[in-house]
Amino acid sequence: MRLPLVVGAVVLATAIAGWSWFEVTAPTWSPAEAKLIVSLSLSALPLLPSDPSNGVGDDPAAAALGRSLFFDTRLSGNGKVACASCHLPERQFQDGTPLATGMGQTNRRTMPIAGTAYSPWLFWDGRKDSQWSQALGPLESPVEHGADRTQIARLISANYSTRRYSVCCRK
Description:
- By secondary structure, this protein is mostly helical.
- The protein is built from 6 helices and no strands.
- It has helices at residues 2-17, 31-39, 60-71, 83-86, 131-140, 149-159.
C-alpha cells in the first residue's frame, strides 16, 4: 500500500521540479520501415476483383445508391440515424466513442469500415461474409437504426426508384 504513495510522491515532486521522465520525440523510421508503413495504407490495396455473386457491384449507379443510403437518416425508426451517424467519414468511418449510439446505446464500439470490402468476414465476431449481408443487421437493430423491412422497402420504392438509381432490375 505504501509503494503507490511513494511512486505518486516521486511523480508529483518531479512534475513540480519541472523534470520529465522521458523526452517525447518524433520517431525516426528507416527506409525499410517507411516503405512498410506506406504499404499498409488503404490506398496501397489493389483494385477489388469483380464479384460474380453481385450483378451490380461494378455499376456506378449502384455506388451512387449505396452512398445515398449511407447518409439517409430516413432508414431509421426515428428518422434521425444514418449509417454515417456512427461511421463518420472524417474519422476513418468510426466515431471514436467506447460504445456506439444510434436509437439507443449498443454494447460495442462502432466498427471501423474503411477497407472492409477486402475482408472475408465482417462484424467484430466475423458473423457476416459480405458487406450487403452485414448491412441488414444494423438497420433492424432496435439500438442502431430501429427500422423494419417494410419501412425500408417503402422508402426505397418511393425515393430511389429513379433512373439514376435503377440498378436492381437490369438485365
